[in-house]
Amino acid sequence: MTTAQEALESIEREALDRLATLSTTAGLEGWLTEFLGRERGRVTQALKLIPTLPPEARKPYGGAVNRLKVALEAAHAERGGVLRAAETAARIEAEALDVSMPSIGRSMGHAHVLSQVRDELVALFKSLGYGLAEGPEVEDAWHNFSALNTPEDHPARDPKDTFYLPDGRLLRTQTSSVQIRHMAAGKPPFRIIAPGRVYRRDAVTPRHYPMFHQLEGLHVAEGITFAHLKGVLQAFAEGVFGSGTPMRLRPSFFPFTEPSAEMDVRCVFCEGAGCRICSHTGWLEILGCGMVDPAVLEAVGIDSERYSGFAFGLGVERIAMLRHRIPDIRLLWENDARFLAQF
Ligand SMILES: [Zn+2]
After folding, report:
1. Which of 99, 277, 310, 315 has fewest C-beta within 10 Å?
2. Domain range for residue 91?
3. Taking each helix axis from N to C terminus, what angle separates 55-95 and 2-21, rounded to the nearest 10 degrees?
4. Number of domains making up the chain
5. What is the pTM of this model?
């Protein structure tokens, strides 16, 4: 009897000591099996001793085993609660966000180099008093050609050069169509720029792409002369290529302007000495311009005796390429983030 009681006390001490040394909930299961397991647990084994005890000792011993069982179950539940709480606290601590840590540093995107140059040009002409005008990219032949004084047999109308839709409309080949729409819809004076995409059936080469961006300017009012045009172009050249940039105008031909001219600025790469980029002329061709042909004014119902005006058009890609020394127009369309990130 005494030996059996002592054995129970020994099981209790050992069980409680072991429970106290467990540092994680992972050890709880093994402890439970060892002490309270239904088949081999040490408390179960102690119960099996009952038939070997003298009859008068069986009942108090059985009661002692049951009390031990209840005590150990309670100790197990309590220790489990403590360990789970500690583990939860540790996990929360580990997963906590430290808002004072430096960030990973995600890079910000920015506007495409063409958008940057276009926005810069728009801002420049706005500062010169020009308003913004827009028109459709799918255009009819009247707005794109006829109203712009382009003869029926002009090569620009050829399907080899222009994208036509099955219904006879076309993808505009120039933003000049916007001046026609703008003039037809209102009364002079007009002072607008029209930036936008245009389409031509060109093969893809380092200098040509079937879609590109133009920026068209138009100023129509009473008493407008070529001198006004030259003043605006000088302001444009200095705004884009730096103050004091020399420019020159060469006679040219466009159906919708008379007289017509092409504008060059002194080569920004060789400063006029002659290099590969300027074909050793010392000059870079920048835009086409001229006085609006009276026939164009009359086509949209404007009295050409009373009003006069000038127009100019430039390629945004060309300006961007000269400005940033981009050697191949295709780079602008390949969407290579390493290339675009430079601007
Ligand atoms: Zn040059």
Report:
1. 99
2. 2-95
3. 0
4. 2
5. 0.67
